[in-house]
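Lab notebook, bench 4. Still working through the backlog of constructs that have no structural model yet. Next entry is a single chain of 502 residues. Request: give me the structure tokens for it.
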Amino acid sequence: MKKFISIFLTSFLILAFGAIVYAQQPAKFGGSPGLEFKATGWIDAQTLLFKNVTAGNPASGIYNNWGVANSFAGGQPVDPLDKTVSFWETRGRLTFNALMGKELSGTVTFEMDTSPWGNNDGTRNSLGFWTTDRAAVEIKHLFFDVGLPVVPVPITVRIGAQGFYQRANFFQNNDGMGITTSIKLDPATIKLVYAKAVEGQNWSADDVDVYGLDINAKVKNWTFGGYGFYYNMNNYPFYQVPQTMQAPMWWLGAYFDGKLGPVNLNFDFGYDYGKVENVVNAAVPDVDYRGWCAMLKIDFPFDKFNFGAMGAYATGADKEDTSASGLPGTLTSTGVASTKVKSFVVPPGTEVAPAFGEGMVFFSTFVDRGDHGINVNLNQGQINRGHLGGIWWAKLYASLKATPWYKVTLQGFYIGDTTKNGNTFGTAREGTNYSTLRDDSGIGWELDLINEIQIYKNLKFMVGGGYLWAGKAMDLYTNNTTAGNYSPDNPWAITTNITYNW
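Model written out:
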């Protein structure tokens, strides 16, 4: 298949750009060979069936990014509360690489989507529109890598639309325009990052720039690292016209990955520091951000089994100081101006929540490439709790590779709430006329079962299911002082995925 694709692409490019191809000469420095093309990719089809969860976009669920329920408007339930949701999805990615030896390469990745099958419009992600022929092809990445010549140490520079993946299931999982420089100084690797998130007006300081540094070193079976990222957000939330707010924000982190005897360990710690300020009205108080999170994963492989434990603690907001949006000039539950966010937060647009893949109901799952889960917060233009802010959780799991083609995993975990004077997700109230937010500790218990079947070398089928016994911290206020609070049905999800990759 790879040979066929390479022959097809090479033939097409020769016909279309014959003069350019024939004029191409091998790179001179380093004795690189001539031009070489490679193609990789995958196509999937998946089904989703769930209740009281959400699919990809948090707005489609019963809880939004900051834990304010979407489920009751004027005291009436809003879809999809307590409704069973089902649909099909498909995604495909195709990556082309043009290589000139080890020193120079170019990469373009296309992505094609439909969610769901049978889209009712012909816009983005609508490949499944009946009769197809939609504008569904997106450019995911477009960049080139160059190894700098005549330097004493290996330095590689990546320029263009690329992935900025810094501890991708914990802190940052973004795609965008920028430059990444990697410097190899054995045993250390230094990575310098610059990205342009928002440009705004070319003549005005209303853009968003990202600066980052990551340093890690490998010592025997261990990798130790630390990073710092500064988001200079002169336009906040993103794409605001006219410009009203700014948000200078820092994220600092430390991590290690390694092996201690037969046990594999992964650890992450992150801290956010900064503020959001109103640049139009100086009388509006700033909102200060201070939050942290720690996460540990332990794996013990034994014969055909793998036993593991995982957990995290992340600070939560105090709802007497924090509004539903975390923006200056907005009011808290007690009617005063918002001034603090002590919850751990992640940068705008980061897809760490879908990439997390550690659950089936509360968190996203790798079975359907992270496309559902109660806590799949993704806010393209604003700082948000991500997948860990405002909670703590602990998980035990075991998997069995029963045959070379079949693997089964059983996992169970408990999720707790760390938000103060209110709940991270639920909006239950108490007191006279339900005048104050209720503060609960338990989000719930979850049990999951996942099956992975390798049909062919390049064809894999997965099916997973999970059930969450929801705690009091998931209860909702009905916006009605007579009806009071409401406990939604326990959330559950079943999803399948079949993927062909080449």
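Notes after review: The chain has three helices and 25 strands. The longest strand covers residues 84-100. Flag for follow-up if needed.
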